[in-house]
């Protein structure tokens, strides 16, 4: 039997079919319980914004084993989802817990063909080792006499000192001094939104996120190589880094919470103390690039 259901109904029925309560679903999907309830009741106004709605829909659907692209398409079109009866849905999206998964065992004794690749690789490694040893022995130079060695050493030291002196004079007279600008970050704002004005910075601009032990924080960033769905930091993945697109002048960082979160920009720590919220927050990066100033050492 074909039926049209809302996105929330499909998500809730799938969670129920997997035998997951709200707390278990929160642990599995890394989506907060209150947002799970909002998604399953199609109450999108309870979510912080359009970016979070799609990110949480994608993350929740994928962790439940549903077709995330189909869910996002239904949301964008504002339509329901056409599904078969309950049995078909369960059969299509059969969930197997990690603890129940068993790797298939090989039946029967292993034949000699099983060891052919291992024997071939071992033989190749031995031949390469023998070839290297022979090459070293064949190309080993004769031991020079004491007189020749002393002469070569003295000559080498003399040439080296002459080269260093010449290089030093050339560097002092012609190599320019390059002043690398100091990157400055000024933070304004409060509550759940702040702006970081970054000046005197050069590409590439690398942003690094890290979390404290026991924290689970979702992060997303526009105008960067971070995926549209963002990433979730946890005890198993405590640090991620992303590089802003070359030449961009702004980027928006979205986070699930700031508790236990640290952000650095090109190695400089970003001050998050003005964010007083315990829930989702946004950090807008305003980037002002300035070129380095080059002057000649002679003042010309």
UniProtKB/TrEMBL annotation:
Cited InterPro entries: Bact_Cytoskel_RodZ (IPR050400), Lambda_DNA-bd_dom_sf (IPR010982)
Keywords: Membrane, Transmembrane, Transmembrane helix
Stretches that traverse the bilayer: 115-138
GO-annotated molecular function: DNA binding
Chain spans, region Disordered: 146-176
Record PANTHER family: CYTOSKELETON PROTEIN RODZ, PTHR34475
Protein name as it appears in the record: Helix-turn-helix domain-containing protein
UniProt organism field: Lactococcus allomyrinae
């Amino acid at each position: 039997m074909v039926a049209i259901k809302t996105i929330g109904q499909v998500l809730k029925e799938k969670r129920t079919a997997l035998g997951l309560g709200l707390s278990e679903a929160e642990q599995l999907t890394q989506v907060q319980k209150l947002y799970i309830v909002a998604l399953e009741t199609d109450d999108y106004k309870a979510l912080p914004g359009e970016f979070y709605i799609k990110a949480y829909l994608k993350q929740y659907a994928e962790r439940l084993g549903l077709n995330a692209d189909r869910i996002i398409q239904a949301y964008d079109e504002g339509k329901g989802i056409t599904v078969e009866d309950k049995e078909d849905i369960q059969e299509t999206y059969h969930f197997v817990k990690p603890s129940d998964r068993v790797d298939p065992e090989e039946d029967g004794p292993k034949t000699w063909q099983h060891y052919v690749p291992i024997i071939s690789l071992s033989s190749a490694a031995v031949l390469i080792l023998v070839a290297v040893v022979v090459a070293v022995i064949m190309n080993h130079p004769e031991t020079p006499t004491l007189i020749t060695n002393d002469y070569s050493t003295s000559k080498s030291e003399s040439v080296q000192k002459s080269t260093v002196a010449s290089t030093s004079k050339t560097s002092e007279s012609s190599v320019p001094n390059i002043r690398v600008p100091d990157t400055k970050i000024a933070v304004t704002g409060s509550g759940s939104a702040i702006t970081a004005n970054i000046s005197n910075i050069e590409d590439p601009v690398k942003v690094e996120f890290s979390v404290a032990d026991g924290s689970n924080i979702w992060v997303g960033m526009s105008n960067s190589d971070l995926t549209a769905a963002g990433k979730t930091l946890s005890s198993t993945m405590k640090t991620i880094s992303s590089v802003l697109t070359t030449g961009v002048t702004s980027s928006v960082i979205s986070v699930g919470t700031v508790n236990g979160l640290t952000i650095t920009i090109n190695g400089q720590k970003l001050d998050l103390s003005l964010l007083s919220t315990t829930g989702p927050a946004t950090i807008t990066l305003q980037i002002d690039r300035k070129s380095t100033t080059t002057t000649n050492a002679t003042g010309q």
